């Protein structure tokens, strides 16, 4: 399917966005957001009660974040209003809702207001969108998933007249304690030694834009679904070389970058959960890390061999995923490949849901967003300081075309002999 580009409204030039620990809370570049599409009857008052309970249980949403000027912004309590918007009288309610969410995502956080917000948009009699936005210093994608599950569980219990189960969330302090224990452990030093050795002779990072720029306050996004035949063929191809389709997508992106830049020593940026302790796995927060994935692409390399490199590289990256990207920042500057949770969501009192990630934080260069499911999505987000809408659509189209050709090709054929797009 041809990609469609959602272009952000023009914004005034902005200075470089600072690192997470000194981030300006007002910058929309640091938004993480999800859209939960609910199909079925839903009581808005009951949903709001469930949402307030879940937010009240998530201690991180009551904390503070500081900006680079030293000001402080309160994230807010669990009882701030939930916006409700009825769009059923609009000609295209779902499209109107998507435009509403895109506009909100491009709006700054209030300098002294809450750093998370929710809205319930009604687009049909039994069709709803729950929009959840938060600052990246509070929630990463996994944190959004924990909140979504808890709201659904509480909503389901209330709808059945039951008392919700006790909160599964751990205390926010446990995250800091686990992180402090990691930094004092032998594992931290082993992880550091691994990345020093892995990147001792690292290549100069290359991008499709051929240059770098600070993240902008907004981003461009090109969206597409994989054709059913391509998705199934890609899964069969990956299985035939003893890999998963994630590794196949990473190998394809490395090949795409190598061909576009003419450089075979490729660095990709790979977001990882950064959560290995029990507290981190059950506590909403922001622990996501970004690690480099280094792959070698030569004319004699086969796609099976390149995919095997990705398997080993991702396996090693996950073993050493907690060593913070801030400490290896210079190496983590290539295009990102972000794997999102599958689209199927939890039940809200019997109403099924689908989850779509709308934003994952700042876009330095270009991010490939991969979401598996019956009809997998391959979207691309880009920094508008580096790519225009037409340029982004062209890059996206070429990558989708490459995936389709690789999915139906011989993975043991040297890549130098593989057909190229004209």
Quick structural overview:
The chain is of the alpha+beta class.
Relative strand content: 15-25%
Supply the CATH class of the largest domain. Alpha Beta
Q: In DSSP terms, counting alpha (H) and pi (I) runs of 4 or more, how many helices?
A: 10
Question: Quick one: overall form?
Answer: globular
What is the spatial order of strands in the main beta sheet? 1-8-14-13-11
Defining key terms:
single chain; 422 residues; alpha+beta; Chloramphenicol Acetyltransferase; 2 domains; 5-stranded mixed β-sheet; 10 helices; 14 strands; globular
Could you walk me through the main structural features you see in this protein, from its secondary elements to its overall organization?
The chain is of the alpha+beta class. The chain has 2 domains: 4-168, Chloramphenicol Acetyltransferase (2-Layer Sandwich), CATH 3.30.559.10; 174-342 and 358-417, Chloramphenicol Acetyltransferase (2-Layer Sandwich). Helix content is 34%, strand content 20%. The protein contains 10 helices and 14 strands. The protein has helices at 44-57, 93-105, 141-159, 172-183, 186-198, 228-240, 245-261, 278-282, 303-319, 389-407, and strands at residues 4-6, 31-39, 64-66, 72-74, 83-86, 116-124, 127-135, 220-223, 265-272, 289-296, 336-340, 352-360, 366-371, 377-382. The strands form 4 sheets. A 5-stranded mixed β-sheet has the order 1-8-14-13-11, with helices on one face. Strands 5-6-7-2-12 form a 5-stranded mixed β-sheet, with helices on both faces. Strands 3-4 form a two-stranded antiparallel ribbon. Strand 5 (83-86), helix 2 and strand 6 form a beta-alpha-beta unit. Helix 1 (44-57) packs across helix 3 (141-159) and helix 7 (245-261) packs across helix 10. The longest helix is centred in the middle third of the chain and has 19 residues, at 141-159. The protein starts with a strand and ends in a 15-residue tail after the last helix. Residues 6-23 and 65-78 have low confidence and may be disordered.
């Amino acid at each position: 399917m041809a990609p469609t580009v959602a272009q952000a409204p023009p914004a005034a030039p902005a200075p470089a966005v600072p690192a997470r620990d000194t981030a300006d809370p007002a910058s929309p570049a640091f938004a993480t957001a999800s859209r939960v599409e609910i199909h079925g009857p839903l009581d808005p008052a009951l949903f709001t009660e469930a949402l307030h309970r879940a937010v009240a249980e998530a201690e991180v949403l009551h904390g503070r974040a500081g900006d680079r000027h030293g000001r402080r912004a309160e994230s807010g309590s669990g009882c701030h209003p939930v916006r409700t918007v009825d769009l059923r009288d609009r000609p295209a309610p779902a499209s109107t809702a998507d435009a509403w969410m895109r506009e909100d995502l491009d709006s700054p956080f209030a300098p002294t207001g809450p750093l998370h917000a929710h809205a319930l948009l009604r687009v049909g009699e039994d069709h709803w969108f729950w929009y959840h936005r938060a600052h990246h210093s509070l929630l990463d994608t996994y944190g959004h998933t924990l909140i979504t599950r808890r709201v659904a569980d509480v909503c389901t219990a209330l709808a059945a007249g039951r008392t919700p189960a006790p909160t599964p969330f751990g205390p926010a302090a446990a995250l800091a304690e686990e992180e402090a224990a990691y930094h004092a452990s032998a594992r931290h030093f082993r992880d550091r030694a691994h990345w020093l050795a892995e990147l001792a002779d690292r290549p100069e990072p290359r991008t499709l834009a051929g240059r770098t720029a600070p993240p902008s306050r907004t981003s461009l996004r090109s969206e597409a679904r994989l054709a059913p035949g391509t998705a199934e063929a890609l899964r069969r191809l990956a299985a035939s070389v003893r890999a998963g389709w994630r590794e196949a997508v990473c190998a394809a992106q490395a090949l795409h970058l190598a061909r576009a830049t003419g450089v075979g020593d490729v660095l990709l940026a790979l977001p990882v959960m950064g959560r290995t302790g029990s507290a981190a796995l059950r506590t909403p927060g922001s622990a996501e890390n970004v690690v480099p994935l280094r792959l070698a692409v030569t004319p004699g390399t086969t796609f099976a061999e390149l995919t095997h490199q990705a398997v080993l590289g991702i396996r090693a990256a996950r073993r050493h995923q907690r060593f913070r990207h801030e400490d290896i920042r210079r190496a983590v500057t290539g295009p990102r490949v972000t794997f999102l949770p599958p689209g199927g969501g939890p039940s809200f009192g019997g109403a099924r849901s689908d989850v779509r990630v709308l934003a994952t934080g700042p876009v330095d260069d270009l991010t490939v967003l991969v979401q598996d499911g019956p009809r997998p999505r391959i979207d691309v987000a880009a920094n508008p300081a580096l790519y225009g809408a037409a340029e982004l659509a062209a890059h996206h189209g070429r990558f989708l075309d490459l995936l389709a050709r690789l999915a139906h090709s011989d993975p043991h054929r040297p890549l130098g002999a593989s057909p190229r797009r004209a």
